[in-house]
Amino acid sequence: MLKNFEYAKTEDKVKLNREIKELRARLVAQQQQVRAGKLPVLVLIEGWSAAGKGSLIKEIISEMDPRFYQVISPAIIPENEERYPFLYPFANAIPENGQVVFLDSGWMESAVRKNLRLEITRDEYKRRIRMVNEFERQLRDGGYLVLKIFLHIDKKEQGNRLKNLLDDADTEWRVTKDDLWQHEEYAPFLKAYDDFMEKTGEHVQWHVLDGKRKKRATRDALKLLVNKIDKALEKGRYIGDPFEEKFPLVKMPKLADVDLTPTITDEEYKEELKKLQSRLSDLHNILYRKKIPVILCYEGWDAAGKGGNIRRVAYPLDPRGVDVHPIASPEPHELNRQFLWRFWTRLPRTGHICIFDRTWYGRVMVERLEGFCTEKDWKRAYNEINEFERMLTDWGAVVMKFWIHIDQDTQLARFTDRQNTPEKQWKITDEDWRNREKWPQYEEAVDEMLAKTSTKNAPWYIIESNDKKYARIKALRLIIKKLEDACEGNL
Questions:
Q1: Closest CA to 296 of 285, 306, 281, 286
Q2: What is the pLDDT of residues 263-275, one digit of tens each?
């Protein structure tokens, strides 16, 4: 794309200024349509150092209502200092429905620079290409308009601009060692940018603009943006493909076939609990030293004992290195973003542990059954979840998913106990009783969820919880075995 790029010929300035004025007026009018249509717009501006990315964004937003857009410049953190997954800062930056976000450099610049610095392996670079394609497709399928622009200048032009910046005491601070390194290594960067654009244009097309002529670049960027917004508002939300089995899966039993009779004596429980919690406490120190992130996911029937199970796991951990996230119905600002966004924002740093009390699987259970999303949304979510979890395990995270399982009679007994015990009544709601009436539909949804998302890298574990004490010990044993393997490098 860049090697064969033809720079534009000079255009009449009067005509250019008139076109820019007209396009700005259209964009201002579109902002209200974007808000009314709840269209989220993400504009990624990439390009060479000193190509004018910041100036281009400034020209685009000059007449826009600042209440409904945001400009974000994600920092490119050296790999040895990074504590979150590669896509974390960009997933955090996605806009709410009806808002526009401009990214001043993003996943392209981060991946290319780290690859050329040899901070990541070739295999890791290939994984990041795959992650970018999946991320962009998920955004598109989730109704986002994503526009990707690359601002191009040649080596001579870049050199002149960097020199001018360095020669001025008020602007020399804008030139970094990385900028000068990029200029020296212009040819390898050119090849790397071309490679990245070629491999990440499958779902969202790249647009290369002439950075040597700023007014033309402004006009072309505005034209791209307003035309794409018009088309998105006219066509409506894109609907992605349904589930395709493209991950190696672990065969799971149907819930109805799970034996729920296992129990443990009180004496054995007390002895095992003390021993296992002590071992888990020791492992937490090793995890922190080795910078291994851990994500524990709890799902299960109401009154199955998730809370008690989580307490026994969290108690021995250093509270400075663990977070427990109780997941309720999404808040308005969460509901107005792609459904995985609120989980991206809760991921742990390396060496830390996070525990989710209910998870992203709400998409294929409660949201599916209560009609909070369309059928195509939840059917598409199986792939999106598997991709999300693969990204986490590729990052080096230990991901464990527990389904805390009981039968209907046990649930009824626990519901009744809660309702008849004053200090437990806060635990039982009308919604719990309504959900109980839908047990068969939920069981069908859970069976499908287990079958389609128990991947080899992030399998499901069914925890028999008619005996809560047995369930706690089983979960702790599984967690400790998995963490020991991770600390020994056996995963």
A1: 306
A2: 999 999 999 999 9
